[in-house]
Design a protein that fits this description.
about 70 residues
Length: about 70
């Protein structure tokens, strides 16, 4: 029975890593952490990386607002 279930699960989701939604609280925590990293990068003069991190924060925040409107 266990082999049948395993085979079914592998068919439904072949990836070994979780590919589903990220909880809202985790997205917020990641965005908050990255915002502090932006400050550090800017203080060090690494503006290119700060911009990349800023864009990621926007992605996380936008994903949060999209999730809020869909619930």
């Amino acid at each position: 029975f266990g082999d049948d279930v395993q085979s079914l699960l592998e068919t439904l989701q072949p990836a070994k890593q979780h590919l589903g939604k990220v909880p809202e609280s985790r997205r917020r925590a990641q965005a908050d952490f990255l915002e502090s990293a932006i400050q550090t990068l800017a203080a060090e003069g690494d503006f290119e990386r700060a911009a990349i991190v800023r864009d990621r924060v926007h992605e996380l925040r936008n994903a949060s607002s999209v999730a809020d409107t869909q619930t």
